[in-house]
Specification:
The complex is a heterodimer of chains A (189) and B (383). Chain A has ten helices and no strands. Chain A has 189 residues and is an all-alpha fold. With 383 residues, chain B is mainly alpha-helical. Chain B has 22 helices and no strands. Classes of the chains: A mainly alpha (189), B mainly alpha (383). At the A-B interface, helix 2, helix 3, helix 5, helix 6 and helix 9 of A face helix 1, helix 3, helix 4 and helix 5 of B.
Chain lengths: 189, 383
């Protein structure tokens, strides 16, 4: 980012290459639509271009990026007043062909594992959809973005302990939803 | 560590954000607490299970973003683009390598300026300063030993020939000396006479310091009254400041106007001063010079008889005429006379000694003893 602020356009391309995937996935899990998530990712980088002077290096650049994306997602959902597309539906649409091919080509044991894995993904996405908004964003930021709790507290503008509590509640909810897969998880270790 | 503490640290422990000491303490608590160990197991399993699959962004998203960035950069307000340009330049300027390069360039550049400003062998680029003639009134305090050259009338050509290379020929594009000094010789002579009269008035009224200064100016300006003015400068110094100062002036006059009546009179007064100050050897040297010939010969012998034993007087007087019998006046010999003078004369007025020892001046004095006694001619060679 320092290089880009000095006028190095190649540095911006490097930023795009490094952060487009986590930002897209965060937007995708937040709003639940691929096209909308891509637009929001693009808009995030445009905000970086327009507001690069506002970045004072007081926090990590990734924190600043995810804060922009999170605000854009909230604004977009409020503007459309639409219920986000369910992640579970999206997941079925996107990975169905791959899963079908895997099922056809694998052995019966592998097919069973793939089926379990597919069910697990569906279950995870459904569990995320069921999370309250404030827990969901903390969960996505920590689990997808890898943002530390102290930085998440800055993004969502809440005390750090509150953020940790929200994460704890989110995990406990996820645990209830994924209780059937605990044996499967132990088997994968 | 207790269970409440574990609940507080569990999220940090789960995502590796706990410091080493707290992590070790939490793990020790887990080792013996069944309740917390069960919670921890569920949390860890849930975290592992809820690893979300990372979807690939749509192909072309990066290109779209870069195109949008290019357009957005072009559509930025002019002020912001200017500030970004300034920021870019400032970023380069703050780099140490660039700063050192600029500093080095400044040092080399300033060094070249100084080197170019030094005088070179070529006279085309430089400005040559040549001392020219000037009215005596514009030269306050100039003594005979100073380097200011003041020429008058027909003595200029002789002075040029005697000074040789010391006097630079003016450039062709410079105006002539007469054009620069429109004051005529006659007017200059009148001014010097008036200055001499003022000095004499001050001397007669007892204002010896002022008289010494005015006589010095007249003597420095040269002219027909220069020698007399120099002698009266010595008188004024003697009456105003004492023999210590006057003796040096008398010595300078005796050396400068060697062989003239003024020189003899100056030598007589110098001897009197040295005698009054108790410097008998210097007084004797002057008396011996005067005893050889001239108007002060009798009085000099009388003084010598008072200062030295008769045998020494006879020996000295016998030596002195021998110089005169050689066909040359003692005072006209540039080799003998300065050597006979006290050392203070040459020490206090080195320029006078230098002028006397100048080969051309010595030649003039030897070839034309009568002209050497002319104050005006002598003044013309004074540096």
């Amino acid at each position: 980012m320092v290089r880009y602020k000095r006028g190095d356009r190649d540095a911006f391309a490097e930023l795009v290459r490094r952060y487009q995937r986590p930002l897209f996935n965060f937007s995708l899990r937040y709003v639940g639509a691929v096209d909308l998530a891509a637009d929001l990712t693009q808009e995030t980088f445009l905000r970086v271009v327009k507001r690069s002077a506002d970045f004072k290096h007081e926090s990590r650049f990734s924190t600043w990026l995810f804060a922009i994306t999170r605000n854009l997602c909230i604004d977009e959902l409020r503007r459309r007043k639409l219920r986000p597309v369910q992640n579970s539906e999206l997941q079925e649409e996107r990975i169905a062909p791959a899963e079908a091919n895997a099922t056809r080509s694998a052995s019966p044991l592998d097919a069973e594992r793939n089926t379990a894995s597919s069910e697990l993904r569906t279950c995870i996405l459904r569990a995320i959809d069921c999370l309250p908004e404030e827990q969901k964003e903390v969960f996505l930021l920590r689990q997808l973005g890898g943002i530390p709790f102290v930085e998440i507290a800055r993004i969502v503008d809440a005390p750090e302990n509150t953020v940790k509590s929200r994460m704890r509640y989110a995990l406990e909810r996820m645990q209830q939803e994924l209780s059937d897969f605990e044996e499967y998880a132990r088997a994968l270790r | 560590m207790d269970c409440e503490r574990f609940d507080k640290n569990s999220m940090d422990l789960l995502y590796g954000e706990l410091d080493e000491l707290s992590e070790a303490a939490t793990l020790r608590h887990l080792h013996h607490c069944t309740r917390c160990r069960g919670i921890w197991g569920h949390l860890r399993t849930t975290r592992e299970l809820s690893q979300l699959p990372q979807e690939e962004p749509p192909s072309g998203l990066a290109a779209r973003i870069l195109d949008a960035e290019r357009l957005a950069h072009q559509s930025l307000p002019l002020g912001e683009r200017f500030s970004r340009t300034v920021s870019v330049l400032a970023g380069y300027a703050m780099r140490p390598q660039l700063a050192m390069a600029v500093l080095l360039a400044l040092m080399v550049g300033s060094g070249l300026i100084f080197v170019r400003g030094q005088p070179t062998g070529s006279s085309a680029d430089g400005i040559r300063v040549v001392e020219r003639g000037a009215p005596s009134g514009e030269l306050p305090g100039k003594r005979a030993g100073s380097k200011t050259l003041v020429f008058s009338g027909d003595t200029e050509q002789q002075a040029r020939s005697s000074l040789g290379d010391d006097l630079e020929e003016p450039d062709g594009d410079l105006p002539s000396r007469h054009a620069q000094t429109p004051i005529s010789d006659e007017e200059n002579r009148l001014r010097q006479r008036a200055a001499y009269a003022d000095a004499m008035t001050a001397y007669q009224q007892g204002r010896y310091a002022e008289a010494e200064r005015l006589f010095s100016e007249v003597a420095s300006a040269g002219g027909e009254q220069a020698a007399s003015a120099a002698l009266h400068e010595g008188h004024a110094a003697r009456n105003g400041s004492g023999c210590q100062r006057a003796a040096a002036i008398y010595d300078a006059i005796a050396s400068k106007h060697l062989g003239s009546t003024i020189a003899a009179e100056a030598s007589w007064h110098a001897a009197s001063c040295y005698r009054a100050m108790g410097q008998q050897s210097r007084a004797i040297a002057h008396y011996q010079l005067l005893a050889a010939s001239g108007a002060f010969a009798d009085r000099a012998r009388q003084a010598l008889s008072e200062l030295v034993p008769p045998t020494a007087t006879a020996a000295s007087t016998a030596t002195a005429p021998s110089a005169g019998t050689a066909g040359k006046p003692a005072g006209s010999s540039p080799a003998v006379a300065p050597a006979a003078l006290p050392a203070t004369a040459t020490e206090t007025t080195p320029s006078v000694t230098q002028a006397t020892s100048d080969p051309q001046t010595a030649k003039t004095g030897g070839a034309k003893p009568s002209e050497a006694g002319d104050p005006a001619e002598s003044d013309s060679t004074s540096p």
